[in-house]
């Protein structure tokens, strides 16, 4: 198989990438939408798997529902902390996957693609909040998006702990989506280095 000729003139890899980025760079909201779908689907799958594992552990110990509830009540602080960590890990991995898909599809500006994935999630939550207000109902907005780990948003939950949990969830998902977007874009830089032979 004959080798492909190198680009004509004194064109460098950086020149080629700059031209491509100028033409095809920027936020791609279509790619970000598919990234958001990936993040949502991943969160649903992880949540289902973790729920099944939790149920299996309870069944494996031959505990009744009352015994499980009593044990959880006795160790409420530990259960809350572990639950918060698990939710944070699920959200981070889910949005990392979503950012990766968006960054990989868009090829350029992985950081922006990750932010766009996160913005899609915010837009959907706001739309659902408005629909909920119009319908005059209280909703678990994140749960109604797609079965994400339950973080209820209503008047009763707007305590300091609820607000802090919400902020942590926003930060974790944003960081995960950005890192995923950068990782997805990095794949194309390796392809470019191989293709341009530099």
UniProtKB/TrEMBL annotation:
The chain crosses the membrane at residues 33-59, 79-103, 115-135, 155-183. The lineage of its organism: Bacteria, Bacillati, Actinomycetota, Actinomycetes, Micrococcales. Keywords: Membrane, Transmembrane, Transmembrane helix. This is Uncharacterized protein. The keyword Transmembrane helix applies.
